[in-house]
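Re: your question from the hallway

Yes, I did run it. Sequences:
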Amino acid sequence: MKKIINLHWRAAALKNGFMDAVAYRAEFFIDIIGSALVPASIQLILWYAVFYVGQANSFGGMSFIELINYTIISVLFSQIRGGNQDFELQEMIRTGNLSQHLLKPIGIVEFVYIRGVAPKLVIASVCICIGVVLSIWLPITVPRIFGAMFLALLGNIIHYQVGAILSTFSFLWEEAYSVLMVKNLIVSILSGELLPLNLFPASMSWVWKATPFYLYVFGPTQFALGKWSVAQYLHALGVSVVWIAVLCVGIRISWHLGIRRYQSLGG
Amino acid sequence: MLQTLRKYCEVYRIQIKNNLAREASYRTNFFTIALVDLVWICVEFSLFKVIYANTPSLAGWRQEQVFFFLGVFFTSDALFTFLFQRNFWTFTDLVNRGELDIFLTKPIHPLFLALTRWVNFSALFNLVLGIAISIFYAKAADFLGGWKWILFVSWLGIGLLTAILLRFAFAIWVFWTERSWAISQLYYHFFSFATKPDVIYPKIIRYTILTALPFALIGSIPARALMTGLEIYEYFWLFGVLIVFFFFDRWMWRKGLKRYQSASS
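Structure:
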């Protein structure tokens, strides 16, 4: 019985999230288009500058076509990563709005995630459809698109978990907004969203391998493009699950410690 | 005239004083925002470091030239963030909530009050860092220095002016839309074009970021002018674009004010 009730609030939170997403449709779509097209255009322009203006034959061992394919496919997954739920959490702590949620029989961290993931699920569905259409021209297959999207969704969970831990800085300081911004900036380069991570010099590759961020965009893109074998994909899935488990523990500890300092005064 | 100028200076002095007092009570926030800027600079540098690890030049620009450009761009952007950015975020609320009323009743230009109310002191860190980067890479980027540092300051002024005119052109739509959040977001998406030298762009995009959306005037054109100089027609072009944007913004502001309904637009 308890399980059914739990499922009930989760379904309600997800429904709320969908309704929020469609309430401001114009903003929703302008934001998606802006965040997808502009970074992709800049990447494409960089490759254009290297190959056509600079007359290069290859760049970091990749041909012009390979880089173009990477850029196009990575856009599908870069739309899935992130979300603003961690910012919402820190704002709740800062303003004291957390109190009203603490009174409810729900897990606040999970509730905020479920509500905020709804638009990402809509985008994921759209991106899968686009990926299926693109598979006619690009070297990607439909099963790999689904597999890659699954990995990207796990990446979305990891991203939120990292943010949920960092948002507890709000219990200590005035706010955690800046800390979350720093995290997002680091993610933008180490996720493979700005450029393929295999362009990093070999001596610097440990930097992106040491974080889970490459599982957000680079990993799914490599798998979709057939650059990763199924074994590498399964390994990445395993790594994702381990990160999720470790970060779950991190959330429990950081929130347990944070709540003890919480005064619900806002400000 | 002098008396008017003195009045505006006095108002601005009070705004600065209020902001300093506010900033002093949120010290941690000051340092963490400075940290965000530092990481942003590191990300942009890392991006070009990775690119130049794989190629000796990008559209004819060496690594040092791009880093000098980044120095100029960060300085110009930091100036805008320091003096104006927060005001543009609150501009939407002023119009939507009818708070512009208070400014309209005061014996000073309402736009002056609306756009100078908030000062972001944490951007000073980025400003210093931008200048340091520019100085560090100046020689290697073929910038001759000496008296030309005066030109550096002038070009920063042009970059700042461009950012104000452009940001205003995006913010002013709040008089016609219920929420201008999406249009503001568009500004920040397009702003990404300013973070790269204009020489890398194909003709059509380059033309766009020099005319209709002159983001190249924030950092790229100033950096290029300092390093290699511009063609004569480019100077005329640049001032032409700024003048057109100035009159466009003024016209939109007047139209917007006529539409303003005080309670909510």
